[in-house]
Amino acid sequence: MEKPDKIIDVLESEGMLRNAEIVLKRMNSGTTRGVIYTLLLENNPTYVIKIDDPKIISSTKDFLLSYNEISVIPDVIYADENDNYIVYTYIPGETHYNRGSKLDWMTILIRELFTKYKKINNDTSWGRVNGIHRSTWSDFNNISFKLAHESIGNHLPNGDHRRVKELVEKLRDYHNKEEKYYLHGDTGIHNFVYHSNKLVGVIDPSPLIGPRIYDFTYAFCSSPDSLNIETLLPLFALWKVNTPFTEERLIDEVIFQLYTRIGVCIKVHPQDLSSYMKAWTEWREYLS
Predict the structure, then answer these.
(1) C-alpha–C-alpha distance, residues 121 and 180, integer Å
(2) pLDDT tens-place string over residues 137-192
(3) What number of other Cβ atoms are within 10 A of residue 236's Cβ?
(4) Cα-based distances in Å from 214 to 5, 60, 139, 169, 208
């Protein structure tokens, strides 16, 4: 793994540090195995240095460069030619907390990111850019269902597991006609930067080739607050312009995303489980 002092030397040779006082602050990298630093110039957070597996760095770089015109995406400042690290602009704020209402931050996501996603050639495989490629989006969903089922276990009755499995099969009919888009792939509140109760940045992509509705429902279900139909439908009205999505399909996608989210919640943030289970009792009523 690349050493931070060598990266600093490279950035200085590129004239990016302006002979300023330099401080590196290691950040919590969450679930990633890599290392992330904030680079401060004259005590001002200015850049982020991400050091990780070359495949991860390469896909991160490609995503950020592909969407460099989007205001909530950080700008690439320097990319190592061997993809050992990447340097991008620091977005001031915090993740998770002081985020304002879900209706407000989801509205910004829709306008500034989701409606600007690019279509991908049909020859490109579905799934994670750095993961196992799938021949159909339904294959991706089936794997997600199996993983969630294993994690959730007895937290939900067998009837609920069975009905969600049937829902996955129902969604197959939609996905067989689905267009492919180049998605962020991890649009949760842990990757959203908020400043003064407003969403200002989206960081740490896990690029995914999938339908646009995936990132939309992933974001909606990424926190248990306002996880209700009254919040969803106004957002859907804003997002669905020029798309063939029906309200029925939207609700089906949200139910499935919520199910997989409960599986993740049990493993990663069990403190939210009771809130998600409460939401499930409401959404499960829409299961046919």
Answers:
(1) 7
(2) 999 999 999 999 999 999 999 999 999 999 999 999 888 788 899 999 999 999 99
(3) 22
(4) 39, 19, 14, 16, 10
Please count the other Cβ atoms lying within 10 Å of the Cβ belonging to residue 22: 15
For residue 213, give both structure tokens: 């509705």
Strand 35-41 relative to strand 44-51, pairing: antiparallel
Reading the block at residue 104, the tokens are 């407000």
DSSP for the chain, written as a single string: ---HHHHHHHHHHTT-STT--EEEEEE--TT-SSEEEEEEETTEEEEEEEE--HHHHHHHHHHHHHTTTSTTSPPEEEE-TTSSEEEEE---SBSSSS---HHHHHHHHHHHTGGGPPB--TTSPBEETTS--BSSHHHHHHHHHHHHHHHHGGGS-HHHHHHHHHHHHHHHHHHTTPPPEEE-S--SGGGEEESSSSEEEE-----EEE-HHHHHHHHHTTSSTT-SHHHHHHHHHHH-TT----HHHHHHHHHHHHHHHHHHHHHH-GGGHHHHHHHHHHHGGG--
- Compute the CA torsion angle 190, 114, 178, 141 (nearest 10 deg): 10
pTM: predicted TM-score of the whole model, two decimal places: 0.95
Q: What are the structure tokens assigned to 249, written together?
A: 């399909």
Q: How far apart are the first and last CA of the chain?
A: 51
CB–CB of 16/77 below 8 Å?
A: yes
pLDDT one-digit tens code per residue, 59-78: 999 999 999 999 999 999 99
State the residue for tokens 């129902």: 170
Distance (Å, whole) CA 205 – CA 113: 12
